[in-house]
Amino acid sequence: MLGHHYTRTFLETAVASVNAGCNLELSYGMRNNVFMHIPQALAMGNITLQMLHDRVRPLFYTRMRLGEFDPPAMNPYSSLDLSVVQSPEHRNLSLEAAVKSFVLLKNVRETLPLRARDLSGQRLAVVGPFADNPRVLFGDYAPVPEPQYIYTPRRGLEMLGANVSFTAGCSEPRCQRYSRTELVRVVGAADVVLICLGTGLDVETEAKDRSDLSLPGHQLELLQDAVQ
Predict the structure, then answer these.
(1) Pick from 150, 181, 148: nearest CA to 167
(2) Residue 13: count of CB within 10 angstroms of its CB
(3) Are residues 183 and 116 in the same domain?
(4) Residues 127 and 58 occupy one common structural domain
(5) 191 vs 149 pLDDT, higher one
(6) In sequence order, which residues have a C-beta less than 8 Å from that of residue 27 and are 6 or more positions away?
(7) Is residue 30 in a domain?
(8) Residues paired with 124 in a beta bridge
(9) pTM here?
(10) Of 75, 151, 174, 227, whose CA is between 20 and 30 Å from 93?
(11) 215 and 130 housed in the same domain
């Protein structure tokens, strides 16, 4: 609220937030955060002790239900490790969730899905800065990835047994340096071309928004060259 000029100080923000029903603040890394001013607001009579109790109570109820105050031995999740988290059952469920979350905007001539049995003898080209760069595949608030579990588009297609050629065209999402000659060579020899474009954390993230939806750098040029 301070950043949007709804209030002028952290004290005003704390008072307005508590009065509005807010009971949780995200101010990671800030030693002097908004809710540190609650004692002052309480002393000044801007908020009441009963109001604070009402705000805090559901937080502790939730923490109790989550087992945060139980002895570790009572927590069934304490014994879990990667052998469980990355078990075949869990990985298959993750794959199912990923497949079902795709948004397909257009499917001309029923081109998709690509099936391994249909790719025999086909030459595939996978191009673009997102084609084989695991680092750029994760967005804001993603967990720390385990490299052995990451499947880039290139790696996934190669597992189908297809004849896959690859070039990034540009090595990172900003795409400041673009190699058109290499892209045209790889695409020109292919029967099927997959172009992997986007933004990623290098270009946009929380508190680093963009004023337009244009593809960054030379990515649009890369796309047009591949289509041409």
Answers:
(1) 181
(2) 22
(3) yes
(4) no
(5) 191
(6) 33, 34, 35
(7) yes
(8) 164, 192
(9) 0.71
(10) 75
(11) yes
